[in-house]
Write a structure and sequence with these properties.
Distance between the termini: 73 Å
Helix content: over 70%
Oligomer: single chain
Structural class: mainly alpha
Largest sheet: none
Radius of gyration: 22 Å
Number of strands: 0
Strand content: under 5%
Number of helices: 8
Shape: elongated
Length: about 200
């Protein structure tokens, strides 16, 4: 596999199609970062595409081509921050308008997968980000540490905390669901005895 720096230099030398190799290589990372920040697949795809476009346009400003992934990560974070600010402003005005009730949609996949994803998205941003980078984007802790500009032990500790937080959330949700089923079963039994 060619080094990022080599591809960057080739792109800057006029072979713009070489940039597609960087897109293919880093898309899972950039999409994962965007998804952990924006919590919506469509918005994350838009942010990832915008990140690559901005990177291509500003490639000549990259001082250290070997650090392309870190540079690109900072671009996507800035795009997501701007997007959230716009979204927050839009939501503020949406709340002023009349609210209409919405129906709960059926999960389009496995319910456990949907529940897991819901709980990952509810985690604090740093925990959500590291879980998505590790499990979705398939980066190891050394690569994550480099991308987040933290030490490897810090990345490992953050991953451990994120797993524990997710486990605690999932266990609480499971207990709550089981309690609801128990109460429902007890109500059915009492109704049956009363008849």
């Amino acid at each position: 596999m060619r080094a990022d720096a080599e591809i960057v230099r080739e792109t800057l030398a006029g072979k713009r199609e070489a940039f597609s190799e960087l897109v293919e290589r880093h898309y899972p990372l950039i999409f994962g970062l965007a998804l952990s920040s924006l919590r919506n697949r469509d918005d994350a795809e838009d942010a990832a595409q915008e990140s690559f476009l901005r990177a291509l346009k500003a490639l000549n400003t990259l001082k250290e081509p070997a650090r392309f992934a870190s540079w690109l990560s900072s671009i996507v974070r800035n795009i997501c921050r701007d997007f959230r600010a716009r979204q927050s402003s839009e939501q503020h005005f949406a709340h002023l308008a009349a609210e209409t009730p919405h129906e709960a949609s059926e999960p389009d996949g496995n319910e456990l997968h949907e529940l897991l994803w819901e709980h990952v998205m509810a985690l604090p941003p740093d925990e959500r980000e590291i879980l998505i980078l590790y499990y979705f984007s398939k980066h190891n802790t050394r690569a994550i540490a480099d991308l987040l500009s933290i030490s490897v032990p810090a990345a490992e500790k953050r991953l451990q905390r994120a797993r524990q937080s997710l486990g605690t959330r999932m266990e609480a949700a499971l207990n709550e669901t089981m309690d609801q089923h128990r109460h429902r079963d007890q109500a059915v039994q009492q109704t049956a005895l009363a008849v």
